[in-house]
Amino acid sequence: MQDKRFAVALVVLGAGLAALSIGILWHDHGSSPQPPPQTHSSRDAPSSIKPTAQAIADYTVPAASPKYITIPRIGVTNTRIITLGLTKSSQIAAPNNIHDTGWYNGSAKPGQEGAMFIYGHVSSWTANGAFHDLKKLKPGDRVAITRGDNTVYSYRVVSTEVYPYTQVDMNKVLSPIDPKTPGLNLMTCTGKIIKGTSEFSERLVVFATLQT
Hints:
- With 212 residues, this protein is mostly beta strands.
- Helices cover 4% and strands 33% of the residues.
- The chain has two helices and ten strands; from the N terminus they run E-H-E-E-E-E-E-E-E-H-E-E.
- It has helices spanning 53-57, 170-173, and strands at 22-23, 66-71, 76-84, 91-92, 101-104, 115-120, 142-147, 152-164, 183-193, 200-210.
- The protein has an eight-stranded mixed β-barrel.
- Mean pLDDT is 80; it is low at 1-43.
């Protein structure tokens, strides 16, 4: 990945729902850090309708891009990874279905240097999201990423961090936990709904490294 500085704003879409909307600012090498963008809210809630088995089987992405994520410990199996880029407002919109996950296409691809950054929903009003049980992962647990050409990359969980929602260390979140090894970082919301808002009080990040 190019040498970039990132700032990320996290947004919860609706009470009981953990969705992310990520604003990214990047600057040429040597420029001064910029303050993170303000947190924005949205009234557009993602769908809770589970994709059919056929829709999942027919899903395609470019050969080198992440296609599916599988996390055996928490029952995530061949969950689609939706490729997402910047919106007109310089944010990455969350997946529009709680049963999908989202890969920021400015982060690393499977097996590449740097960190691949994938995030997902905890829940909606009526159903659990793809990353509902992310908090149950422990060091050594396996996370498999299937590319568009069906090559499978296996990552192992190294650690889990929980941050107050206003104090997320985004430099760490968007970097490999081991600088010498390609990384995979998974994020979702956790904690409690802040009274009077639709904002979760914490962010959960799982750091994993590529197994060779």
